[in-house]
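Ticket #4471: structure output looks truncated?

Reporter: J.K.
Steps to reproduce: submitted the chain below (181 residues) through the standard prediction queue, then opened the result file.
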Amino acid sequence: WTEAESDNFFSRHFYRAVLQKIFLDRGVITKIYHNGHIPKEGEDSPFNSSTKPVIIGSLRKSCYTSFLAYVRGAIKKLTTHSDYREHCAIIQEKMSDITDEEIARYEAELLPRRRELSSIWSLMAFSATVVESLIVTDRWLYLRQHTDLVQKCRVEPVFDYTQSPRNLVVVGVKKRPNPPS
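Returned output as attached by the reporter:
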C-alpha cells in the first residue's frame, strides 16, 4: 500500500467509527450489554458492551473528501435508499437536525484517536494470516482426530493467493460404512 492508499483506507474507517459514535449519542442505536449484565457506572468497556452497526455499504467517491461530506452522504443514503427502510424513520427523526458545527466537533474530539484505529487495523492485517492458519489447522486436526468417520483429510488451495488470502479449503473424505456381515 502506498501512503495515500493507507491514508484513504484509515480515513474511511475513522469516518465510519465516528459516525457510529454519533448514532449512539443521538439515539439511532443503543448499546448492547453482553451476558445480560448492565454494568455499574464506570464499569462499561468495549469488552462487555457493543452496538449493532447500521450497515451503510459503499458511498459515492465524493462522500470521502471530508468527514462532513461522509456524514451527509451516509444520512442521505440511509434516509432515501429503499434498501434501508429498517433505519430510515429513526435516522430522519434523530439526525435531521444535526448541524455542520456538531459534526465538526465530533471529528475534532475524536481525531486524536484515529491513530488507535490505524494501529488496530494494522495489527489485524499483520496477524490475519496467522489467525487464519490456526483456524484451518484446527479444522484439519478435528477431521484427523475422527478416524472413525473420516477416511482422509487435507487442506488445498482453492485459487491463487494473490486473489485472496482466504484461499484454503479443508477437505474431509467420509469413510464408507462397513457392509453388514
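Triage note (M.O.): checked the attachment and the full C-alpha cell line is present. The longest strand covers residues 150-157.
Status: closed, working as intended.
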